[in-house]
Protein: D-2-hydroxyglutarate dehydrogenase, mitochondrial
Amino acid sequence: MSATGLLKLRPNVVKSFFRTYKASGIPELTQVRHNVKRGNYATLEGKDIAFFESIVGKNHLVQDDLQGYNVDFMRSVRGSSQLVLRPSSTQEVSAILKYCNERKLAVCPQGGNTGLVGGSVPVCDEIVLSLARLDKILHIDEITGIAACEAGCILENLDLKARELGLVVPLDLGAKSSCHIGGNVSTNAGGLRVLRYGNLHGSVLGVEAVLANGDVLDLMSDFKKDNTGYHLKHLFIGSEGTLGVVTKVSMLCAPQSQAQHVAFLGLSSFDDVLKTFRDSRQFLGEILSSCELIDANSLDASVNHFKLNSPIEGYPFYMLIETSGSNAEHDMEKFNRFLENGMEKGQIIDGTITGEVGKMQEIWKLRELVPVALIEDGFCFKYDISLPLREFYHIVEVMQERVGNLATRVCGYGHLGDSNLHLNICCQEFTQEIYKCIEPFVYEYTSQVKGSISAEHGIGFLKKNYLKYSKSPAAISKMRELKQLLDPNSILNPYKVLN
Amino acid sequence: MSATGLLKLRPNVVKSFFRTYKASGIPELTQVRHNVKRGNYATLEGKDIAFFESIVGKNHLVQDDLQGYNVDFMRSVRGSSQLVLRPSSTQEVSAILKYCNERKLAVCPQGGNTGLVGGSVPVCDEIVLSLARLDKILHIDEITGIAACEAGCILENLDLKARELGLVVPLDLGAKSSCHIGGNVSTNAGGLRVLRYGNLHGSVLGVEAVLANGDVLDLMSDFKKDNTGYHLKHLFIGSEGTLGVVTKVSMLCAPQSQAQHVAFLGLSSFDDVLKTFRDSRQFLGEILSSCELIDANSLDASVNHFKLNSPIEGYPFYMLIETSGSNAEHDMEKFNRFLENGMEKGQIIDGTITGEVGKMQEIWKLRELVPVALIEDGFCFKYDISLPLREFYHIVEVMQERVGNLATRVCGYGHLGDSNLHLNICCQEFTQEIYKCIEPFVYEYTSQVKGSISAEHGIGFLKKNYLKYSKSPAAISKMRELKQLLDPNSILNPYKVLN
Structure:
């Protein structure tokens, strides 16, 4: 299978996701629910518009039809920005921020606007700074695998270019066809291949960022090793545009795999799931590229809502295990040994394995459509948490017990190989009763087992009240001091991350 | 081969290195040469000693025989500290720093003291804060591979414990048997397996650090994914103890490989070296674990000084390529195809490949003893730089031309797979003439091709005057502001990293 083939299905998934979520009745104006008070920023005046026009030109200063910029992908936050600026260079970004900082105008940097925590849209009337026109691929080195591009480059575009050279971008997301590299870096995006390629702190080699005062910090590097002073680039990886605006990125691409295989397995207990994961690391070692968990309730949702055929059924737990290697024959042999071992031990009850593109796509659909299918129940509470593997599934059972008949479905799926659970609680409609039954309990529970209340989605606007469950007061205080140091007027992406 | 077997040779190498370097005539009191002016710190008084004794106890407050703490591994810096404190817990570290901060007493945190840039020893009379007693392994999870330990834990001890569980620490260094994890993290140590496992920003999951004012920042995490706010831990990875003292670390271990193979190849041009590296990524993909370059002058040094036998000779370039995989038969087949391809194309002229532990050790010796052998010429100027691969070897030729007969040997070897060259210029003794011929030219050259003037060794004390060649004034200014924020009295590891 070519991974590209597999990914072709995703743009539709994303579209459908958006459509169904829109119809699901989630309140759009979350900031009203949260009682957001507009910060003490200046208000846009005619002279500001004139200045911005002198920088980006008339065509890239947008004042009409801003719905697409004001509302996030989940339709959970709707800002009321009156102005979108679409600069085409780092220098233009710098001039805009310098001016906004002096004038105390709030700015919301925006990439592909595919974030899930309301981090990429204005909350009040911030100026939207769209990075969409900074979309150039700067270079890709075939030998070292090092690629550099501007922040507005779409992930899939960089990946397609890398594949022409036998390389692959070490990041793969459902939103691949619309998300920007700059946004990926700013949110430390996770996704489907963290198990194989690690996170962006490891694979990003350099960034260029524009600070709130307009200063350009050139931390670009084409090297895996650079131990010259503080590693400042990491300040901009995962700080969600609140410390600076990422304008360029260089990263290390991996060699493209020659072969892929996918197995879909049925298991009778979570204990067997854990043992199978441990064995997958041992038997598949360097070729293991995904290890996903889907529980029966999750599979039921995608199978029924999308009329899919699951190759196996009737088990409480399913695992999707993928390998990517440089020799199909070798990989298949390793995979077979792994499966034989699991079945001999009785850990794996049933399963199917394939290396055919079409069949692998069918299997991936069972997993990838789960989040979309779950929304069809009506309303869905979604949590993205990291948990110790021994506690990984327990929270699903605890939650089933807690919410009882209030929910139509409580289920868990996700990136088992990264200890990242997507816990979902579905109901016919949002009620305060079920909401209070779930929150803040779910965060307290996660905090008690020292998990992370946001594994890969970030904090953004929607989770900032829960930050305390994963970060100590000392850490939050240090975050505030960093924010104060780098953005003393707090113009960058206000109302996000920190309260 | 077990990598452990291989590593057993290293403690001797290290010892020998120390011995020979000592005899090589490098000036010991570099700080005199650099004209260091003692900072405006308080001077140790009786009341201070009494306080420290109340914290660490009489036995762990050392005032005599401090040579081992005052002199670095390379004997290039000699401090004049009068006091070493050996706390046994984070709380004790915290109490010490809080006191020192209030009293304005300078502190030099020290791990295994194996650094190569004078970062781990006092420059003047700083109090040495040894982390050696914080040596506990806290836990290692067999399934997820996540390990946590105190900062003073010796790298090899953690690795041996991990191997008992089928895991391997994703870091391998010559100084493995004496360096501390906390020091590795503080210096973002590189080494022999960065090609395979990436750098510590990717594999360190959490740190606990004590700030200059004694505040404990608990950023420990047992998760690969944690997107809750700013990723503060990276401030302490690679900042060489100047922003805080790392007291605990958690990191992700990799599954231990079942098989290893090593090839030693002869090539006739650097262009062929590059092509062979590119092919190694393609043919060996996920099993490639090291790709090292050794030029003829480097090999000649280790062969002649240590009376070693090289399996092949007479080529201008040699490559050592290592694979680590989960199936010896599969790995060997891949390796053979790679070698056949290289020989058919005429890129590889000759070579040998082995999977036998003893023979692999013999081959690794040829590479690992190069840095030691080069010192035997008398005096050796050593540079650790990252360069674009297309420029990688050019600097060796340029330097040969520049220094001409002033040098006994100009050579290059290193981690080709990480674009990390160790450039060495040997001479009978240090003279101003050859020194001026080399510096600052070598840094200017590196800067011009946008390389890094310190790939893996750090800045420490010895390279701080050259930081400007790899970091922009804006970046250096931001580093200063961070230092001011986290350590306003500048008590932590003064005279290092920043001027």
Summary: Chain B is about 35% helix and 20% strand.
